# Entry
Amino acid sequence: YGENTSTENWGADPLQPYGNFVNEFGNYIGQGVQAKQFYVDVLATYEPWHNIFVDLNYIYRKKNSQNDALDMKTHFVNLGLRWSIPYRRYEF
# Structure
């Protein structure tokens, strides 16, 4: 996808002001600084008692950008306890 630079807003950051964009017309998907993302989400669940669940979740994200200053790696481990509530994925 196309990333923002330090001076240009190509839409990669939804928290930027809406009126702060580069082109109103003539845009195409993937413009800006080229970047590739890799995402893995692994979930292990154990039920020690009826309707009581222990969840262990691991998330790995990696982003390679043409601009090396924008490269990123994230490792996230989450341990949770839930009562008869379905697990929800937050893939955004």
